[in-house]
Amino acid sequence: MTIRTILVDDEPLAIQGLRLRLERHEDVEIVETCSNGREAIRSIKTHKPDLVFLDIQMPGFDGFSVIQGLMEVEPPLFVFVTAYSDHAIRAFQAQATDYLMKPVEEQRLADTLERIRQRLAERRGVEEVGRLKEVLAEVAPESMDVDGVEDAHSSNRYEKLINIKDRGQIFRVDVDTIEKIDAAGDYMCIYTGDNTLILRETMKDLEKRLDPRRFQRVHRSTIVNLDLVRQVKPHTNGECFLVLDSGSQVKVSRSYRDVVARFVH
């Protein structure tokens, strides 16, 4: 899988340095470089890349303006590259996949590219399922009524393993072992019953990677693996607690009480 990439920065040395680091990754193909925001918008619309490394502070159109200028097209994945850490929160609010500080560290870049590969695999998987459905609808429309076939293909869209870099190590976590996930700002606390790991990712993005038939929000900042719920304990004001395999309890807020209905039918 080739990652078609555009580099955007008004500093030639910054582009040169990033290009040299990216050359070590054989699946990254740099299709063009741009020195300002207006060039970037034209180039992205023309080349339709998979990934854009985007400087934030540039004369004229800054990095955020570039993203705003692409609202009417299918956007690529964006990684912001900047010398200023105070833009981090706004970068993630703009749905950036990651945020790199200059000068870019090689290991940090490698970690970012691994996340990009995962995201692109998910996106292409969804596209393949869509094309398959179109073909089936044309050549065998009766097959579209078989729930089992659709469910099988749908389940392939979601992660089976999640790579989590925590405390200087990379953990490969089987999603079947995840009991619950708590949001803590831009970080997720992943609980597997006997371990707790920290993942840098938004709740919204992580939800897209997990099968919603199993992983559901039961609170604004909590996701639970429904397969690992062992008991439902009613509470006051329409709330309740879910008791998980490990014995831990999670409160279900009234806004998410429809989740509990799955267990009381």
Automatic annotation (TrEMBL):
A molecular function (GO) term: DNA binding
Ranges for domain Response regulatory: 4-117
Residue numbers bearing the 4-aspartylphosphate modification: 55
InterPro entries: CheY-like_superfamily, LytR-like, LytTR_DNA-bd_dom, Sig_transdc_resp-reg_receiver
Domain HTH LytTR-type: 162-265
Gene3D superfamilies: 3.40.50.2300, LytTr DNA-binding domain (2.40.50.1020)
Superkingdom as given in the UniProt entry: Bacteria
Keyword Phosphoprotein on entry: yes
Keywords noted in UniProt: Phosphoprotein
Protein name: Two-component transcriptional response regulator, LuxR family
